[in-house]
Amino acid sequence: MSSFKRDKKEEEDGGGNPFQNIEKTAVLQEARVFNENLINARKCTQILTKILYLLNQGEQLGSTEATEVFFAMTKLFQSKDVILRRMVYLGIKELSSVANDVIIVTSSLTKDMTGKEDLYRAAAIRALCSITDATMLQAIERYMKQAIVDKNPAVSSAALVSSLHMTKIAYDVIKRWVNEAQEAVNSDNVMVQYHALGVLYHIRKSDRLAVTKLVAKLTRMSLKSPYAVCLLIRIACKLLEEEDTANDSSLFDFIESCLRHKSEMVTYEAAHAIVNLRKTTSHELVPAISVLQLFCSSPKPALRFAAVRTLNQVAISHPAAVTACNLDLENLITDSNRSIATLAITTLLKTGAESSVDRLMKQIATFVSEISDEFKVVVVQAIRALALKFPRKHSVLMNFLSAMLRDEGGLEYKASIADTIITMIEDNPEAKEAGLAHLCEFIEDCEHTSLAVKILHLLGKEGPRTKQPSRYIRFIYNRVILENPTVRAAAVSAMSQFGALCPDLLENILVLLARCQMDTDDEVRDRATYYSHILKQKDQGLYESYILQPLQISIPCLERSLREYLEAPSDTPFDIKSVPLATVPTEEEKQATVQKTEGILTIGPSKPIPVSREENYTERLSTLPGIQTLGPLFKSSEIIELTESETEYVVRCVKHCYTKHMVLQFDCINTLNDVLLENVRIQLDPSEGYIILSEIPCSKLPYNELASSYVILQMPEDLPSCFGTFGAVLKFIVKDCDPTTGLPETDNGYDDEYILENLEITLGDHIQRLHKINWAAAWEAAAARGYIEMEDTYSLSSTNTLEEAVKNIVQFLGLQPQERTDIVLEGKTTHTLLLAGVFRGGIEVLVRTKLALADGITMQLTVRSPDSDIAELIISAVG
Amino acid sequence: MNGCLMEPTLYTVKGIAILDNDGNRIFAKYYDKNAFPTATEQRTFEKNLFNKTHRANAEIIMLDGLTCVYRSNVDLFFYVMGSSHENELILMSVLNCLYDSISQILRKNVEKRAVMESLDIVILAMDEICDNGIILDADSSSIVSRVALRTDDIPLGEQTVAQVLQSAKEQLKWSLLK
């Protein structure tokens, strides 16, 4: 037995592996055997296998090498060996993309495809179709049509699948095979039926009526293949989703009847479909849920996984419906497949009532140490959602999170916990003190620099506003003593925040900062010196602008501006005001990202960091002639549709605001496939005061491509006349063209025009949103610095609720709501909305609006801004 | 929620892979040029997949936005990948078909050495199971009948010495095990 073991070991060492250490050049050399007169089928098969193996391992063949092998391979058609022939087909498929002149094997393949040997025919069809192009397809069309209705199921399937592949290159030809496909649907073979349905649907999918008929017919005849039924369910779902009225219940009945199908695959597909249909009512959901519930206790992991994953989705939209399965889900918490367990937990957290939170948390605690970091992150996200849903449970959740923080874990995991605590602190004032205390404890023993820095920053921001700011100083100063330079520097910044905001702590902070000035690291010393100098001035205005308010410009733009400045040295100092401001993500965008992360666990590749619209556009605009003289881009508006979306020409506009100019970008799409537009330009009828400096037409606008035309305008000096309505007409030369090639048929076109909707220039286009860390302080500082204040009272007749009024004001003024004042608490009759922003040219604008609800809405609007014209402008614009 | 509905298409499978017990590729096919444009991405994915699956025998995992079902035997790992919205049971049926047909081809001797020796037939079987992402057939017996198993009576003269020794060894091993 011992010798047997040794043998086994030897084998594992690779003795038995004929494919180890093979080299491309050697194998290509061997491939010359293919050219011999007498073909040794066994040997050739092995060499071909080696070539396929090498290609599969990622080895690349050059075009000449590939062509050489390919031609040698064609010699092998002489052999009658079945396996060799089949390997040749595979070789053809693999090499067809690299080698030249692959079409020479067409006749050999056509012969095999129409021959008598059944083992060749199906594979030959697939090989043939992989080398065929649109023009050659005509030649084999007849054979293909025959093959589709062949009585050998393998041949028929191969022909159907290949035709589906070829719809990408020759849709029009394949379209003609619809009758054959129709016949194949009635085949007895399950796979042929499935493939035929796929082809039929693909050919007809743009024709709604035909699809409806197809589905109606097939739902009645009860398909044999479970795969085909799954496909049919998906088609039915698509029809249901597209339908405007819910009157056609036969489709839904069909899907529901599939819940009782004998194949699990089909029942799951049907349940999944019902759950995901938008219109499903909670009543209709019940049978689907009970099917999934049954699957939860299946012995097959895949089935349990499928069921839990679907239930997890339901939990988002219909939490109540899932509660019936809670018991089954709780059993799955201990499942050996951790994906299933985690999905079960997160589903339970989503559906759980407030009363069950404690029990669930206890259960999670028992197994959380066993699961991988990835799933821990999912659990943390579920807890975050729970915290937002039940703010009153914050103490239980906070304790749990802090326990998780103390456990072992990677950066991503720790960061997600810290993030969750931070959200809880921001959303729930009651949780603030406890949360900060946990975080303080955490940084005492945190090996991740980036996380420590983040938490120190948060402590600096939130700590001074708590009841007892002094207790945090110890934690922060401990970092200065114990940590690496990056953390020390962050700690210094955090301490200075306390100094600026808590006058009674100032003396102590100054002492601590003085000690930091002896630090070994440059950055730490620099920061300490900087902050202690400013703090010694005891000037609130200085604090405000140099300690409390962070730099608000967009960092990528700053980098670009600095590089440009260095490349073209000049005597004038660099002006930081010329750098565009960073845009604050709007509430909807934030919501969207949260939604995305909260969905089911799709651990995909990380998304790129979003760049602001301005940064994207700056790149594109910088290529326009005459744009450089305008200075930096101040703000780009949202995309505005100037046409209905279903018209011949679609035009969208983006307004780019510069210090004294406005650049209008018109993105045009031509949706007619038989015309080509040339010299596309927009004729503007600007309001008084605007001067059109230049127009940059778009020379060519082919079918379905996006091209842009630009208009550069100079804005009027007089501020009130900056707003207005522009008439716009799309002007162009039309040339008829061939829809397939896109080339114009004649050289002579004719002029035409298309009237667009009016373009409004509003106040919001001139104002960039700005986020103030501490709005109240900024408001006071504004008064101290001699900003102009203006005030007026209005009655808003058009809106009836405070929410609507707030939304309209924010949208109209284009200012950033501060300190969450854009959220109106329910049942209140008064509300104060705080706004901040920057007018083009870098002039700050602060606005306070007090709203009161009584019959109509009364609004008192106060503006503070260094420029009286702008303050007046805002006051008058609202009226 | 919307968007989870599956587009009615036959293109179901994103990839099939057979790895050995060190996570090296024995044979793999990827059908989605968007998800796996080059060999490098494929390798990284396989490495990742192997690290996540070789210890826990859990049959199914979500990775990089794909649903992967898998199965292992001795020193082999079989994987089938599909979109994360795909019906897991369909993928499972493909995996079972792959495993069963290979098991039949290798006469229940599913291990790396045997796969390597009959790699040609294994490649043919994979080609018969899935064509560019479309499931061609998911019935293992019909797959095996289509790949035309080689009759094993090769004339002794055409065998190498190693092959003769190997078959002798095999016979001895089986007689011992009985």
TrEMBL record, chain A:
<dbReference type="InterPro" id="IPR009028">
    <property type="entry name" value="Coatomer/calthrin_app_sub_C"/>
</dbReference>
<dbReference type="InterPro" id="IPR011989">
    <property type="entry name" value="ARM-like"/>
</dbReference>
<protein>
    <recommendedName>
        <fullName>Coatomer subunit gamma</fullName>
    </recommendedName>
</protein>
<dbReference type="InterPro" id="IPR002553">
    <property type="entry name" value="Clathrin/coatomer_adapt-like_N"/>
</dbReference>
<keyword id="KW-0677">Repeat</keyword>
<dbReference type="GO" id="GO:0005793">
    <property type="term" value="C:endoplasmic reticulum-Golgi intermediate compartment"/>
</dbReference>
<feature type="domain" description="Clathrin/coatomer adaptor adaptin-like N-terminal">
    <location>
        <begin position="24"/>
        <end position="538"/>
    </location>
</feature>
<dbReference type="InterPro" id="IPR017106">
    <property type="entry name" value="Coatomer_gsu"/>
</dbReference>
<dbReference type="InterPro" id="IPR032154">
    <property type="entry name" value="Coatomer_g_Cpla"/>
</dbReference>
<dbReference type="Pfam" id="PF01602">
    <property type="entry name" value="Adaptin_N"/>
</dbReference>
<comment type="subunit">
    <text>Oligomeric complex that consists of at least the alpha, beta, beta', gamma, delta, epsilon and zeta subunits.</text>
</comment>
<keyword id="KW-0931">ER-Golgi transport</keyword>
<dbReference type="GO" id="GO:0006891">
    <property type="term" value="P:intra-Golgi vesicle-mediated transport"/>
</dbReference>
<feature type="region of interest" description="Disordered">
    <location>
        <begin position="1"/>
        <end position="20"/>
    </location>
</feature>
<dbReference type="GO" id="GO:0030126">
    <property type="term" value="C:COPI vesicle coat"/>
</dbReference>
<keyword id="KW-0472">Membrane</keyword>
<dbReference type="GO" id="GO:0005198">
    <property type="term" value="F:structural molecule activity"/>
</dbReference>
<dbReference type="GO" id="GO:0000139">
    <property type="term" value="C:Golgi membrane"/>
</dbReference>
<keyword id="KW-0333">Golgi apparatus</keyword>
<dbReference type="GO" id="GO:0072384">
    <property type="term" value="P:organelle transport along microtubule"/>
</dbReference>
<dbReference type="InterPro" id="IPR037067">
    <property type="entry name" value="Coatomer_gsu_app_sf"/>
</dbReference>
<dbReference type="GO" id="GO:0009306">
    <property type="term" value="P:protein secretion"/>
</dbReference>
UniProtKB/TrEMBL annotation, chain B:
<dbReference type="GO" id="GO:0006886">
    <property type="term" value="P:intracellular protein transport"/>
</dbReference>
<protein>
    <recommendedName>
        <fullName>Coatomer subunit zeta</fullName>
    </recommendedName>
</protein>
<dbReference type="Pfam" id="PF01217">
    <property type="entry name" value="Clat_adaptor_s"/>
</dbReference>
<keyword id="KW-0963">Cytoplasm</keyword>
<dbReference type="GO" id="GO:0000139">
    <property type="term" value="C:Golgi membrane"/>
</dbReference>
<keyword id="KW-0968">Cytoplasmic vesicle</keyword>
<dbReference type="GO" id="GO:0006891">
    <property type="term" value="P:intra-Golgi vesicle-mediated transport"/>
</dbReference>
<dbReference type="InterPro" id="IPR011012">
    <property type="entry name" value="Longin-like_dom_sf"/>
</dbReference>
<keyword id="KW-0931">ER-Golgi transport</keyword>
<dbReference type="InterPro" id="IPR022775">
    <property type="entry name" value="AP_mu_sigma_su"/>
</dbReference>
<feature type="domain" description="AP complex mu/sigma subunit">
    <location>
        <begin position="13"/>
        <end position="150"/>
    </location>
</feature>
<keyword id="KW-0813">Transport</keyword>
<dbReference type="GO" id="GO:0006890">
    <property type="term" value="P:retrograde vesicle-mediated transport, Golgi to endoplasmic reticulum"/>
</dbReference>
<comment type="subunit">
    <text>Oligomeric complex that consists of at least the alpha, beta, beta', gamma, delta, epsilon and zeta subunits.</text>
</comment>
<dbReference type="GO" id="GO:0030126">
    <property type="term" value="C:COPI vesicle coat"/>
</dbReference>
<comment type="similarity">
    <text>Belongs to the adaptor complexes small subunit family.</text>
</comment>
<keyword id="KW-0472">Membrane</keyword>
<dbReference type="InterPro" id="IPR039652">
    <property type="entry name" value="Coatomer_zeta"/>
</dbReference>
<comment type="function">
    <text>The coatomer is a cytosolic protein complex that binds to dilysine motifs and reversibly associates with Golgi non-clathrin-coated vesicles, which further mediate biosynthetic protein transport from the ER, via the Golgi up to the trans Golgi network. Coatomer complex is required for budding from Golgi membranes, and is essential for the retrograde Golgi-to-ER transport of dilysine-tagged proteins. The zeta subunit may be involved in regulating the coat assembly and, hence, the rate of biosynthetic protein transport due to its association-dissociation properties with the coatomer complex.</text>
</comment>
<keyword id="KW-0653">Protein transport</keyword>
<keyword id="KW-0333">Golgi apparatus</keyword>
